[in-house]
Fold this protein.
Amino acid sequence: MTAPVRSRWRLGLGVFAENRLALVGAGIFLALAAFSFLGPFVWHTDQVHTDLASVHLDPGTPGHPLGTDGVGYDQLGRLMLGGQTSIIVGLAAGLLATLVGTIWGAVAGFVGGWVDSAMMRVVDAMMSIPALFLFMLLAAIVTPSVTMLIVIIGAFAWLGPARLVRGEALSLRTREYVQAMRGMGGTSGRAVRRHIVPNAIGTVIVNATFQVADAILYVAYLSFLGLGVPPPAANWGGMLSDGLADTYSGHWWLLYPPGIAIILIVLAFNFIGDGLRDAFEVRLRRR
Amino acid sequence: MMTSRLLRTVAVAAGAILVGTGLVACSGGSSEEGGKGASKDSATVAFRTPNWILPISAPGFTQGENAIFTSALYRPLYSYQLDGTAQYNIDANRSLAEPPVVSNGGKTLTITLKDDKWSDGTALTTKDIQFWYALVTANKDKWASYRKGGFPDNIADWSVKDDKTFSMTTTQAYNPAWFVDNQLNRITPLPAHAWDSEGAASTPAGAKKVFETLTAAAKDPKTYDANPLWKVGSGPWKLEKYVPGGEVTLAAQASYSGRDKPKLAKVVLRPFTGDDAEFNVLRAGQIDYGYVPAANTSQKSYLESKDYKVSPWYGWSITYLQLNYSNPKTGVLFKQPYLRQAMQMLIDQPTISKVIWAGMAAPTCGPVPPKPGTTDASGCVYKFDPAAAKQLLESHGWKVTPDGQTTCLTPGAADTQCGEGVAAGQPLTFTVTSQTGFAATTKMFAEIKSQMAKLGITLTIKEVPDSVAVTPACKPAEATCGWDMSFFGSQGSWYYPAFASGERLFATDAPVNLGSYSNPEADKLIDATQFSGDDSALTAYNDFLAKDLPVLWMPNPVYQISAYRSGLQGVEPQDPMNSMRFQDWSWK
């Protein structure tokens, strides 16, 4: 049983590797992750204490290759710190949303009937409220922290995956092998665990990459609106927001680096997602 | 495979970083012809549409624009100036009456009206004051300026001597300066001959009926410029055009009897949907007077290059960080004077004002604002001094752990111990409820948090849209009273009337004493400002509270950063009490 599975993954990997943009995306992500998580071990900065005597220093100032911000934090170090928050929240919220959405959608689609109707009306109802509005409301009620941002974004971002997986489940539950398992006395739980979810895994994984990219953007949106993690914590969205307020002063180094970082990581996850979609596409695998 | 989804996300992210430069590019080249010199006898002003015209304030309609609008049409009995040159701060040039003559041990004030007329030529007399008094007395529950025990409850006798003179006797002797500045400031003569020609308001029932009619008319903005009721005024302006939620045009009142006659023929008040919309129009040169939103202070030089003068409008205000003495956990800490002093010493007000607020804030040193425009902190009792703060904590039994968690090492009530009610091991950890939407406020608290962290005091900053709403006053040790510190001063925490006494802020159980500060000595001094005739009472009150720290004093941001065409004269000095006097404006 393991050999075909391994070969399936190997075939998928091969297709993924053929997609150059996907490899570029993976490379960008790894580079940004290394910059954010390993960078602070190389470039030591004080990201806790402000220094009002050193605000808005130009890039190239000794000790501050990317200058300093409005309270004297080293901008390069701040980018690293901000990257940590953005990546952690993006990954965790994206995965949380995918997990919840997958289970919800699989159960609704497989069980069907009134359970499906009830579960999907919940999804419809929640989708009818603009997500950003809900995020802002929740972020205003609770004290924003990394954990809270993950929970808040994850709690509402699962609606998309739920719909997607429910569609897959509706299709899969009528397949012969599922019917055969049910005919032999298999339970619904086993059908969902062993057949529905594994067969929808390609869709789920591809969607997960987009969820991560979306979650990173949501963090950026929330921080842009002043509802992100409070200082001295940082994230790229919040840095972008601060930088925007300083645009007219000519402090370009506060605006472009976090903005470019957001673009790069969102691009990276979208490239990876496209690559994974190819990898899970059976027809491409058989080329 | 590049998907539309990908394009969308890239476009969103790219748009975010390009929006700044985009704004510059888009608006920078806009025409300047719209407002500049379009007409030299008019001015266009960024101004929210007022929605209340009756010069008796009503709950829900107390916005600043309504006060400016009504005072342009109906002059108050007294106008004030804070330059310290006039008796009781009365602006003799603009007031309708001479300063009151105080007698009967401070209880009776006799007021004589000047020779002024209504716009229809009828003389303005004591009948018009009496009419106002009858209306507010019979309808005080509907009057936004009414406070229980205040005006008119504190009037024992009101009498009219003749057409020009009337007097009032108070229930107890007040400090005349307090009474003139903080009570008589509510009086606005109303045109009795036009609004109550039958004299119905002479009885309480009649006054209620007249008030009802006037209030109903005031609640119908679409009729403001047509309703004959509002045609008779005493102010320098008359209402020419009113569009509900839109532009309002004021025209000079030709028959205005005051000394400060309008120099412009017309003033157009133009509302905007938000700060960005206003600022884009200002940048495009399409208004003569506007304001620079806090997020755009860095554009001062750009505006100056476009022939605007950018000027901070200092308010008669103070800004502070409210401490919750009723918090069951941290209230006991705030009750320790040495701890408040230590925390105050960790707030570098002069540097924060200069660097973070870009000079658009000034230190607050006590409850009485300094002379408007004062920007130094020389009068502050507690200077920024982290070393002294550390010494203060250590000398009171705290184990100071820089960048860690400072805890109480020696509990007890003695001078060298943490203080009564503070337990061993209790940490100095507080949550600050602050405001969203103000970049400078966020940076300011990043700085304060950083300074506090250096002494092991942990601040968690929580930003919410309305910090006042979520940090209400609570009863002592109320279990649900969870907030520690509250900040609502991004545009100033408190604006005073002319006499800056603290009976509403720092007296025990005062209505705006959100933190439940209580000190018998402070109460005594506040009472003195209100009831004694001693000129030094206000200074004594200020000195005591500046030192006792009922709150932590914070940098006081300007009321507004105004931007007006350099050719527009008379805008300055800008009134610290937030009034706008368009009649002083003229073109060079």
In short: Chain A touches chain B through 47 residues (CB under 8 Å). The two ends of chain A are 23 Å apart (CA to CA). The mean pLDDT of chain A is 85.
